[in-house]
Amino acid sequence: MSPSSIPQYSVVIVGGGQAGLSVSHFLRQQGLDHAVFEKHSAMHSWRSQRWDNFCLVTPNWQCALPGHPYAGDDPHGFMKKEQIADYLDGFRARVAPPLHEGVAVQGIRQEGGLFRIRSSEGECLAEQVVVASGGYHLPIVPRLAERLPASVAQIHSADYRNAAQLPPGKVLVVGSGQSGSQIAEDLHLAGREVVLAVGDAPRCARFYRGRDVVDWLADMGYYRMPVDQHPLREGVRDNTNHYVTGRDGGRDIDLRRFALEGMQLYGQLEALEGDTLRFRPSLAAALDSADRTYNGINAAIDKYIAEQGIQAGEASVYQPVWSPEGERETLSLADSGITSVIWCIGFAPDFRWLDAPVFNGQGHPVHRRGVTQVPGLFFIGLPWLHTWGSGRFSGVADDAAFIASQIAQHRMALQRELASVREAEASPA
């Protein structure tokens, strides 16, 4: 196929989620021709990779996609799965993006000053590319899973829907981040016996001193803090999210209380030897660390309240309601009655289709607010791309506006360069 017969766009956006469509929104305002390639359907993960009782863990008022803020009657509530999907459907209708659904991008490389994009729809060229496919591509499942008995059902958190999809018997949930803790709670509330392998995820309060903790942190400016001003700098991108829930109007997730109610807590899963699972003796330390974070956030709110002279509810410090008597390091699958395992240990990035020198040793893109060292190549929708809200509904609009402005500047530079070349060619020798 000759270059002249290949479709060419000013911009191609890879990914039709809220991040990609947010960029499309701003490019439309600029009148820039572009295409959005989505290998499934727009916003598909919100319907296909969430369990039935899934809800937001941040209040509805933080849903602030460009031109499409939350407009319901419960700004301090937490939308459920179908409500989130409806909100996103409304955003898609408002943006009306030039969307190519069911089109998988298979390869991108630079060629002659342009990006050549190979997809299931064919090839095209683009002056600039925005990667908006997120960073959660490959479900992580440890190699020891291969040696579990065939009688034990295994799924990843991305495939969990409800307790009824699992066979009767005890469920081992591996991982206690946002997904693991909420899935463990979902099973627990459904009356299932749960064994939870607790990791090092931190936790926070849902409500404190009369308000949602998110409201306090917003007032304190935490969500506006750019990554280069965070104490951990770019290291914050590797942090596990705090576990909390918006279920039933919102509440804390307290693993110690679950233990009082019969959930069995262990440390991190470390190995499988025959029929025996081995766990690190890390449970007590993990629970204590999560509580320190919980109390630390509340203490920061206390300080802010005092400094601002705000009238608020009484301050408090969380006191453990349960502590392990000792570390249990082994568990027999057969003797325990475990019939299913849910792996809740996250995802790995997979950008193998993008041929560009912009990745670090862990396969994550290196960028500054989504701008890479390759001119015309951008990323959006990643955790802490710029602020806490970059990977969420609350901050993606600012990121998208910034990326769109960078695209416009780069395009102007390309046009000036092209004009200079034409002027040189037209000048007499």
From TrEMBL:
GO molecular function annotations of the record: flavin adenine dinucleotide binding; monooxygenase activity
Record-linked Pfam families: Pyr_redox_3
Coiled coil start-end: none
Gene3D superfamilies assigned to the protein according to its UniProt record, in alphabetical order: FAD/NAD(P)-binding domain (3.50.50.60)
Origin: domain of life: Bacteria
Keyword entries, A-Z: Oxidoreductase
PANTHER family for this protein: FLAVIN-BINDING MONOOXYGENASE-LIKE PROTEIN (AFU_ORTHOLOGUE AFUA_4G09220), FLAVIN-CONTAINING MONOOXYGENASE
Name by which UniProt lists this protein: MSMEG_0569 family flavin-dependent oxidoreductase
